[in-house]
Amino acid sequence: MKLAYSSATGDALRNELTSLATQEHVRGLLVLATPSVDITTDDFETTLRSMSVPVCGGLFPQVIVDGEPRASGVLAIGLPTAPTVTVVSELSEADDDLDATLPAEGSEAAFVFVDAHADANGVGSLIDALFRTYSVGLSVVGGGAGRLDGGDEPCLFTGDGVIKDAAVMVTIDQPIGIGVRHGWNEVAGPFRVTDADGGMIRELDGEPACEVYQEAIETNTDTTLHREDFFETATAHPFGISRLDGEPIVRDPFAVDGDAISCFGPVPEGEFVTVLAGDPDSLIGAAEQAAETALTEEPITDSAGTLCVFDCISRQLYLDEIFEREVAAINDDGWPMVGALTIGEIANDGTGHLDYYNKTAVVAAVSDSA
Amino acid sequence: MPERQQRVQALYEIALTIGGKETLTETADAALAGYLRKLNCSVGGIFRATETGYTPTATIPADPAGNALLSAGIERLAELSSDGFPSHTEPTAGDHCYLFSLPDFGALVIGKQGGEIDTATRSALTPLNEKLAEACRNKLVERQLREQRNRFEAVFDAIPEPVADTVVEDGTEEIIASNAEFERTFGDTDETPGTAMVPEITDTGESTQHSRPIDTDDGDHRITTETSCETVDGTEEFLFHGVPVAGDQADEYIHLYVDITDQKRRADELRRYERLVENLPIGVYRTTPGPDGEFKLVNQGLVDILEADSKAYFENRSVSEIYADPDERAAFSDRLLEEGTVDNVELQFETADGNQIWGEVSGIVTETDDGPVFELALQDITARKERDQQLDVLNRVLRHNLRNALNVIDGNAAMLNAAIEDDELQSHVKRIERRVSNLEALSEKAVTVRSLFDQGRSTTTACDIQALLMRVSNELEECHPDARVVVDAPEQSLYVNADVRLKMALAELVNNAVVHNNRSTPEVTLTTETVTRDGEQAVEIVITDNGPGIPKHERKAIESGEETPLQHGTGLGLWLVYWAMSLLGGDIHINDADPGTRIALRLPQAGGDAQSQPDGGTGVAVNSGD
Q1: pLDDT at A276
Q2: Maximum CA pair distance of chain A?
Q3: Is the CB of B60 less than 8 angstroms away from the CB of A131?
Q4: Chain A residues touching residue B41 (CB < 8 angstroms)
Q5: Distances from the Cα of A75 to the Cα of A20, A65, A178, B274, B304, angstroms
Q6: Which CATH class is domain B3-150?
Q7: Residues A76 and A201 in one domain
């Protein structure tokens, strides 16, 4: 796939994107922007509208270009087949009727990006609708868009302009191999979620969620949880929703309000959660494993293509300076590596259940040939 | 986490996804998603067992045909007998499909690509599957009940009469549902229309709420009654049906209001007609056909005409018994059956007192469920028949006896005239001869008048007016060479429905205009024009003379249509014209002219293109007054 990275703005950015869009074998653009780009300006919208091919993308905390995370600039990926772009508006209000709005089957894979700050139940409804409709018939990768400190700003866009509280989906005809791993391990629990709504957990085992969480961390680790620096501590201790025969699905707590803990992604009431902990080696090892899985899947082996990585920004925050090791572990010399550090990840690996993850490394090996 | 604990936890979480949804599809969708998520499976389906096999209730993916693993599972399911569960298939290496029974509902199919579900977990799924089957069964029953309810509500709304569902609580009845027609009729109300139905429904005692009797079944409190209700259009009459709804709610009722306002209005109208028929001075009766016939209905008029004591007189009495000659009944019955309708058939009947009367019978045949019946009207025409007899006798006296006597007088007068020579005596004889001649003419005219009536009131011929006027003119000029008759009719012929009686009337008028004229040259002008008469086209024939005019007392008798001892004419001429016009459906107008008299005869015009066809285009014969 043809790639372009630019730190330009205005006309210069437009020219560079136009240049990519008009190259041979480019039928669509997947544009991953960083917070250094103000996507809400008329200028950016004009750029989107001026493209001669379908455009779709979002704003993420960081992008990955040539195997390196970048906190500024715009990454554009030229899609070699004409994509179908679908927009799901008012994602927070989404319900089971979503199925009818999804495109018919027929494509190999899809990139799906959601507004990470949309209501967790709406995100859950979209994931359920995608799985109900396609199951493993469509390989899906993507993640949550938005600023880490943001909330209500638009963070997604198509050729028609920028949008918020939405999801965008772009289908392609290239086969992809997917690897999904996180490397977090259970240190406490399980705890039954006795009161929750969307991504907000109010009670665990009938007790205030924050108290249970704090006790679990302080009893099983050397860490002390302080409300004032909740985010920093929670980054190292996400929740895990277990499933048989697979890694637990991670839910990343990011805020505390009274005794309620807010997570990216839904935590269904009645289910059991565990408290996870990780170490750099296990996380980096998991990311490497994800890349290996993606590159060794049946249609990908022995072919050439691009590695599209959607790695959680909280892993970068957790690993900090050694995050470059994780990126390096994923990087394969023969495959260009691009992607984004997302707020939540979306993937199915072609065999199992489609889910919305947190703190997980999703690696998609996208074949050059359709 | 230990494997067993993880399994228990996963199964518990699957159990949470079973039930609590609104519909069967939602229940199956949510449960299937829960199974797949917690077992980390990729495809699956919940299928309902039917007489023809398994039909999908929910599948993931939505189109199972596009997934080889699920398709293989469905194929296996189709081959599986009911005791073949649980079952397993591995269509491609490493891809596994598991089939579980959902007791009394159907089957659950779960597919896992690139892995297996371990035996312990599969075994542990059994109670969950039973729970899922129960949830699906319940939703299926709910769905069937909902469909039944929807059908009921559709019927409820489709009923063209107001219907309400009510509940009685603490002695108060409230409407809990109603159809569109109910709201259209009674408006938006919570109260039952009309007088309160609660006492009738809840009490088994006699009702005092309604003027009409109530049909009740004390066993189940059903009621049917007529009631007046205030509607959005005013007070209307309804037939009210109150039916209790069998079920847990013992005091729930369905109310049906059938609008009988028009029906009652028609019933009132019918009663008025019945009273009218009952009090008619003619006999109205219904009989069965046949030589004897059976009375089915008689009115008081027939009772009176046939001098019976009451209507009971006609019970168990055949119709032929009221005929003077019972055989005539058979002939009448045959004729009515053949023709379907008869008018003014004159028959002789015998009254209960044994008196013979004449009756004029009209009737029709009507078909009923029991076969044809005769609807008949009988008018007593005995008095008219007797007057006809008197006229016949008088006519004979005028035509025969009187003329014979006049002939004798005339002959004797002639002999007397020849025998005497005295001039004064001869003048007396001449006066006798003139009077005899006038009496003979009067007698002839009386016979002519009689002949007018013999031909009845209708005519089936169209008369060419122009030709008629020319003929009348020519005949008059032959008899009266000194008279001058002018015919001023348009070249285009006009036709009227008339026969020879029109010519008789015209000849009488033209002859009178000449005979009673005191001018040296009597002049008569005949003109025609089309006029409108009672909204229809008519032809007016105008006879104008230059004579002295018709005496006032003659005109008055004709204009009033009757003679009195003090107001009478001198002859029959004008009466002949009057009766001829009346019988032909025309009329006569007499006015003074200057000089003389203007007499206009108006008759209905026959078809406009009559002259171009032999029968005048009217289906009747064309004549010129003959």
Answers
A1: 94
A2: 60
A3: yes
A4: 352-353
A5: 11, 7, 21, 100, 116
A6: alpha beta
A7: no
Pairing relationship of beta strands A109-115 and A139-145 according to DSSP bridges: parallel
Q: Are residues A118 and A231 in the same domain?
A: no
Strands B234-244 and B222-231: antiparallel
Least confident of A207-211, B92-96, B284-288, B549-553: B549-553
* DSSP H stretches of helix in A120-203: 120-134
Structure tokens at B139: 């939703």
Least confident of A211-215, B121-125, B439-443, B542-546: B439-443
Got the DSSP string for B398-433? IIIIIHHHHHHHHHHHHHHHHH---HHHHHHHHHHH
Which CATH number is correct for B279-380, 3.10.450.50, 3.90.1640.10, 3.30.450.20, 3.30.450.40? 3.30.450.20
Helices (H) and strands (E) in chain B, counts: 16, 24
Count Cα atoms within 13 angstroms, Cβ side, for A92: 10
Cis peptide before B56 (omega within 30 of 0): no
SS3 B107: strand
Mean pLDDT of B22-27: 90
pLDDT for B472 equals: 92
Structurally, how many domains does chain A consist of?
2
Burial class (CB in 10 A: 0-12, 13-18, 19+), B20: exposed
The span from the CA of B30 to the CA of B121, in Å, is 20
The 10s digit of each residue's pLDDT in B184-232 is 999 988 888 875 554 555 544 444 344 334 455 555 667 888 888 889 9
CA B304, B307, B310, B311 dihedral sign is negative
Residue B457 has pLDDT above 80, yes or no: no
Q: How far is B248 from chain A (nearest CA, A)?
A: 36
Indicate the residue among A275, A309, A324 that finishes a domain.
Answer: A275
* Least-confidence region, from B90-94, B453-457, B614-618: B614-618
ipTM: 0.84
Asked which of A275, A302, A335 is the last residue of a domain, the reply is A275
Q: What per-residue confidence (pLDDT) applies to B207?
A: 40
Of chain A, the end-to-end C-alpha distance in Å amounts to 11
Q: Are residues A225 and A301 in the same domain?
A: no
CB contact under 8 A, A190 and B1: yes
- Same domain, yes or no, for A62 and A141? yes
The residue-averaged pLDDT of B514-522 equals: 88
CATH 3.40.50.2000 fits B161-265, yes or no: no
Please tell me whether residues A211 and A358 are part of one structural domain. Answer: no
Give A288→chain B minimum CA distance, Å.
21
Look at B151 and B131; give whichever has higher pLDDT.
B131
> Are A355 and B6 inside 8 Å of each other by CB?
no
- Is the CATH number 3.30.565.10 carried by domain B461-623? yes
Amino acid B208: pLDDT: 39
Q: Has residue B564 got a pLDDT over 80?
A: no
Interchain contact, B39 vs A243, CB within 8 Å: yes
| Below-70 pLDDT ranges, chain A | 96, 100, 299-302, 333, 349-352, 370
User: Which amino acid, one-letter code, is at A96?
Assistant: D
Whether residue B61 has a cis bond before it, omega within 30° of 0: yes
Residues A189, A177 share a domain: no
Give the nearest chain A residue to B37 (CA atoms). A353
A57 and A154 inside one domain: yes
A142 shares a domain with A268: no
Contact flag B117-A245 (C-beta cutoff 8 Å): yes
The pair phi, psi for residue A219, each rounded to 5°, is -80, -35
Q: Which domain holds residue A361?
A: 3-181+283-367
Distances (CA, A) of A41 to A15, A48, A153: 17, 11, 12
What are φ and ψ of residue B144, in 5° steps? -65, -40
